């Protein structure tokens, strides 16, 4: 428990420094700043693999799945890359939500901060629940595998569909609970008008982002559980990837149109992980194979998006 408590404590310190020091004053996050913070978070996450090695080598942490230090590091990095890859799809949705509710760029970081904080709590609960299921019921891994294959198929078929936050079920339920105003009052989530407390667009965007992240976690958590059922590796790789999501959003949200083929990369990753789950009791796939498939799929999608020119629509006469 000491290791878990220390890790969670460090995460809380990181978050406190983020909002209380580095982003104390609301400001627009430029690409250069986002790039620096993205590099910092990726460096922190990859450096943490050294901590993973030390924990398992010195037998400081419980090792229910009997991992060797080297194997633990490979599983951690693979899990981190899976979550980072699937987070890219989340970036697209966040951009649509901010655009739909006209959230000024100056307040977007604060909304994402609170969204990430809530995501950490919900994902921790989902990881505990998922690990418990796999540990107690071996057959549940087949359910996760089929679900990931279905998700990959659905993503392949619906990559052109548009998401409208204002017509979503979540938005309609918020309207039933709180009056909603279109007025933005600084970074406030609520304002009082004529004695009535109304939710601002910032609060509505926050709730929709929060609940949307839970839906994305339904894909990413089983995907990481396909790599390992070790709870600490699953939790740490997932959380460190989420922490870098905010800076990644500000880095690539302005280049969304360039990543036209990234969805196909995610389809390949989800399909591979789903198949790995289905055949886990019959075929043992080395971790370096999983790491290679994920890296090549993601890199291939990015390279294809940047190198293949976009087909121009024929002008109608």
UniProtKB/TrEMBL annotation:
Belongs to the TerC family. It is a multi-pass membrane protein. Keywords: Membrane, Transmembrane, Transmembrane helix. This is TerC family protein. It is found in: Membrane. The keyword Transmembrane applies. The chain crosses the membrane at residues 6-22, 34-56, 76-99, 111-133, 139-156, 196-218, 224-249, 261-279, 285-308.
